[in-house]
Amino acid sequence: xxxxxxxxxxxxxxxxxxxxxxxxxxxxxxxxxxxxxxxxxxxxxxxxxxxxxxxxxxxxxxxxxxxxxxxxxxxxxxxxxxxxxxxxxxxxxxxxxxxxxxxxxxxxxxxxxxxxxxxxxxxxxxxxxxxxxxxxxxxxxxxxxxxxxxxxxxxxxxxxxxxxxxxxxxxxxxxxxxxxxxxxxxxxxxxxxxxxxxxxxxxxxxxxxxxxxxxxxxxxxxxxxxxxxxxxxxxxxxxxxxxxxxxxxxxxxxxxxxxxxxxxxxxxxxxxxxxxxxxxxxxxxxxxxxxxxxxxxxxxxxxxxxxxxxxxxxxxxxxxxxxxxxxxxxxxxxxxxxxxxxxxxxxxxxxxxxxxxxxxxxxxxxxxxxxxxxxxxxxxxxxxxxxxxxxxxxxxxxxxxxxxxxxxxxxxxxxxxxxxxxxxxxxxxxxxxxxxxxxxxxxxxxxxxxxxxxxxxxxxxxxxxxxxxxxxxxxxxxxxxxxxxxxxxxxxxxxxxxxxxxxxxxxxxxxxxxxxxxxxxxxxxxxxxxxxxxxxxxxxxxxxxxxxxxxxxxxxxxxxxxxxxxxxxxxxxxxxxxxxxxxxxxxxxxxxxxxxxxxxxxxxxxxxxxxxxxxxxxxxxxxxxxxxxxxxxxxxxxxxxxxxxxxxxxxxxxxxxxxxxxxxxxxxx
Length: 669
Ligand SMILES: *[C@@H]1O[C@H](CO)[C@@H](O)[C@H](O)[C@H]1NC(C)=O
Ligand SMILES: *[C@@H]1O[C@H](CO)[C@@H](O)[C@H](O)[C@H]1NC(C)=O
Ligand SMILES: *[C@@H]1O[C@H](CO)[C@@H](O)[C@H](O)[C@H]1NC(C)=O
Ligand SMILES: *[C@@H]1O[C@H](CO)[C@@H](O)[C@H](O)[C@H]1NC(C)=O
Ligand SMILES: *[C@@H]1O[C@H](CO)[C@@H](O)[C@H](O)[C@H]1NC(C)=O
Ligand SMILES: *[C@@H]1O[C@H](CO)[C@@H](O)[C@H](O)[C@H]1NC(C)=O
Ligand SMILES: *[C@@H]1O[C@H](CO)[C@@H](O)[C@H](O)[C@H]1NC(C)=O
Ligand SMILES: *[C@@H]1O[C@H](CO)[C@@H](O)[C@H](O)[C@H]1NC(C)=O
What we know:
- The structure is a single chain.
- This protein is of the alpha+beta class.
- It has two domains: 6-29 and 80-312 and 353-404, no CATH class; 477-668, no CATH class.
- It has helices at 2-7, 88-91, 164-174, 185-193, 235-239, 262-268, 297-302, 323-328, 490-493, 587-595; strands spanning 24-28, 63-64, 77-78, 81-83, 98-106, 122-133, 144-146, 179-181, 250-255, 275-279, 306-310, 315-316, 336-339, 348-351, 357-358, 378-383, 393-404, 434-436, 443-445, 455-460, 464-467, 478-484, 500-502, 505-508, 513-518, 551-553, 573-578, 635-642, 645-650, 663-668.
- The strands form eight sheets. Strands 1, 5, 16, 22, 23, 25, 27 and 28 form an eight-stranded mixed sheet that branches. Strands 4, 6, 9, 15, 17, 20 and 21 form a seven-stranded mixed sheet that branches. Strands 24-30-29-26 form a four-stranded mixed sheet.
- The two termini are 46 Å apart.
- One 2-acetamido-2-deoxy-beta-D-glucopyranose (NAG) is lined by residues 14, 199, 412, 414-416.
- One 2-acetamido-2-deoxy-beta-D-glucopyranose binds at residues 101, 362, 372, 374, 376, 379, 503.
């Protein structure tokens, strides 16, 4: 292991190799799989933001805030709004955490122990996020989902002596505020103009040798030999983890092939060690250029560049203006470091990240996009970060999944074994090889695509917010209670899932807060084209609309909601925070608000005085349909504390007897 660590900063990292097909889909938060708001079952543009390599049918539309499609008005999209953790480093473990269940399905199996649960392949899963402050300068640089399904444009650099004015013009002409933006334009330009890592095993794939500047860039990989572009994602970074240059991603957790790799990942995550870039200047100036051809220290220095460390960080801490005051900070138990953040060239004060968690992946079966052994989907409980600045962050979460076989030694196969006829080198794997099994010399063909033998899948959420906690709620644990799934029956939504609450069996204490919140789309029509599956959007209420609510049940096996008079859930709930800010919400008004997905706030005008709540009084203004068609598709919700008890609840619209169960259990101890 040690030798692998030492090569990390000098050359690019030697990769393990992996095989096969194995789509991965996020269900909570809802993964986009590159969808935006299309009415079709198949996504419109698989290259919109990132390279998923998933089936065109997967994914969920971006949330709508109201009962109408957001259309081209981004402010009418709904971003899930999770509360950050409190300062749990100060309060201690088991306090002040905000828990969000990340849930996904992966197709080709994962997890398990070699001895007790041998698998047909190994896999690793990497969970990461990126965040941005709300006040980031310039609309074009904002993290966003966009309002159309096009891919951002990109104009390749043609002459390497481009000056800063020309660079800015090229960038401005490419980046469109109406399209999704995760990685930055500079990130992709950097990737394209940097030499690809030549030490990687590429089997018999012929990678493009010229990026337009006379050499092969990091946009060409074994899995993407022609350098196809998806959003501004860097293909080399996408395919390999850990990456050997600084990246905009922060690690949440690594679920590795082999637990013996954990000590390596915990030490080598970019969360905790700097990564290097070669810095060069615009010709004839003192201005640092955002890209360099050189991907290693030796080439960089030989060519007059500065091999420079960059640090990953939780957030910037501009209040501490010099190294000494920065490093002295221990505020809230965090470590502060002095270094360069990606994309900037001056050293500054940064809040350090912790090492990612490293643990075993949940066991799943091969060729089956389903649950783990306990009958639950694969999941990881993310303890949301606490940001000392107290700022709201806009964020995206990403999952990558790849699988390996033992057809050759993954730790010791590199470019020296790339197929090279002239030199007499035969790649250990080749395209659809014919193998002799001795049956009268009749060869059999194996289905091996060397571009996919070692393959990475990905999904990402839409943009969501991480908000600071309301004052007075710094110390409680918060559990997020959300809804997964989309409209349609099982074959229509596949490989997405039908509706359910998540977690649908939640255990908390009387001190904990439960943040109830959901999002949905008004354009989940699941119409043609349907790709590999069925179109149609079987379900209640208006076609294409997702709706959710919460009504109490007496028993999980019953389907009629308890009449309000008999209910206990709301009488036993204390509101710690509610999105509309109204004080003194009665249990009955809370029940109404939850049952109507925010369409109503009060039964009577007396309880909702003033203009602000006027249109949300029961029976005033828009009437609500019994299937919630004119209630908002998303509900920002409330944080509730419950008395001891076991409570059952359902969604009145989607729960459909034998057909579709959308019910949950809440156990309060
Ligand atoms: C995990 O790695 C260790 C050390 O490299 C090795 O001995 C062990 O066989 C590996 N286990 C599996 C399941 O591959
Ligand atoms: C950048 O290059 C263009 C084209 O050669 C030139 O017109 C412009 O003056 C240059 N700008 C700077 C700041 O050097
Ligand atoms: C490839 O691996 C072999 C040993 O397995 C090593 O000797 C060689 O230096 C490696 N080549 C590169 C380019 O990393
Ligand atoms: C995928 O797995 C291979 C083999 O372990 C590894 O080289 C590569 O870095 C991994 N990529 C990601 C994104 O995990
Ligand atoms: C997450 O997975 C574990 C293991 O299968 C399971 O026990 C747990 O209930 C799951 N959590 C949720 C919220 O489904
Ligand atoms: C179950 O759902 C399917 C499709 O939504 C529908 O065709 C069928 O009639 C439903 N069955 C029952 C018993 O409601
Ligand atoms: C159950 O679903 C089927 C198909 O969507 C629908 O025809 C039926 O009316 C539903 N039953 C109820 C009680 O909602
Ligand atoms: C509601 O409570 C009343 C009085 O206790 C009882 O008679 C009735 O059966 C209850 N209804 C339901 C649906 O629980």
